Batch of 2 targets.
Target 1
Amino acid sequence: RELCQHTTSLPISMASFKAQPLSTTLHFDDLADLADSLGAAFRSSPVYKYVFKDTDDETERQAALAWLLQRNVWLHLAENCCFALRKRDLPAPLQERCVELSDDKVVCYFMLANRTYRKPLSMWEMVTNGFFKLPFYYGLAMVRRMLYVMDHGDSKMAEIWPEPDTPEARATTTYYLHNMIVHPAVQGCKVGSTCLRQALHDIRDRHTAEHPARVTLMTQEARNVTYYQRLGFRVVAETDCQDREDMEQLAYHNWYMQLNYHGKE
């Protein structure tokens, strides 16, 4: 679920910029441009190509993803887990690479959510955020595939990272990294890896051997496995997700990855 490049074309200092949590004072409409960027980044993702397999129109798929992901960001905004870096916060050499972008444009984004006490969406949240409109907008078959995909991923993650049932297990905080994007104008410049390393270092510094942390993620692209391995993640499981409408057909492959922190090293 990430769009990342890891070639280096321009040396930059890790201290020169940092992704910050999106302001909780933002309005829903303020997230429209970010949602468009997320839709563009993930429209070719294997999982979303499967969910929206009824259309080959990437523009239509991008618009549908923007609709969904705008609400996803909005629902998580109050948790301070939506990290963004804007063009204005880049060092000057990198700003020169994207002069056509506005200063407020988000050039790197990811969600790093605390899953330890995660609660499912309430009926009220689903109603107020318009999720019941999905079948009318995109068809019942798409909604069924989306729910199937969510259940497949959640079930496997619950198996790999079960609910803590001992004092030692409850002392571990679990974070979930997803929806990471880097704007094409600054891909290959270590913008994504710099921002993510800093967020991961912040997690490391907040935890100790007595209260450790683990960062988890799920991806459907082999190139992302290599990228995250360079950041210290390791693959802990893999699964095939079959097409719910034809179980003989493979919909996509999942890699589940984890990074452990036991305090400063």
Note: The first strand starts at residue 2 and ends at 3.
Target 2
Amino acid sequence: GTTRTHNRGQMESRTAIFSAPTAADAAGPRTRHGFSPYVNNGGTVLGICGSDFAIVAGDTRLSEGYSISSRTYTKVIQLTDTTVLATAGMQADFHTLHKVLLTRVRQYEDDHGHQPSTPALAQLLSVILYSRRFFPYYAFNVLGGVDDDGKGCVFSYDAVGSFERVQYSASGTGHELVQPLMDQQIGWKDQRATALKPVLSVEATVDLLKDTFASASERDIYTGDYLDICVVQAGKKISIERCELKFD
């Protein structure tokens, strides 16, 4: 009995020590103050290329949290007669990035007397993004167009300039919804007989792209309102089309 009473007394004294209020407890819960310079304004961009064309598209919704800042803000910009860039992410950053690229294109034209090629612009964009690697542009890019041989090309990027030439690429808040559909419809990555893979046409690709964004806007609240579609074809002027998506 004496031993049990002694042990109980020790436990009670230890509990009292560990549960004793401190000055920090008296001041209230601890808070950690921080600041982030970035905000994701949402949206989805997509690029698909065929043998002699490339299509680059992006929605026009600009959001912050559950608020819609704009329903008609285009994320697609024409850099040259053969190159189009679409960017999702933070509006302030990709607007600045677009201005920097347009300035560099004008400088190139003044120095060389002609526009830079799509692969050259792809490399330039990579260099600009990498130059900001310690304070990156919060911008996720898809660049598309036709090269000097008249072949369609699409380039996919990460935030610090690593890029790859691909047949299709998606970025933005709807990326997880769009990319698997492209893998199945364009990439044929579901183990079908690839010898039966049809040749992409401009009309069929545009229809697929519209259906893809319509599907993404059903699930992604940051994608919607309108869809800007830019079609780049070898030897033809770039055509731009705007169609409706979900408004709610």
Note: The longest helix spans residues 91-112.
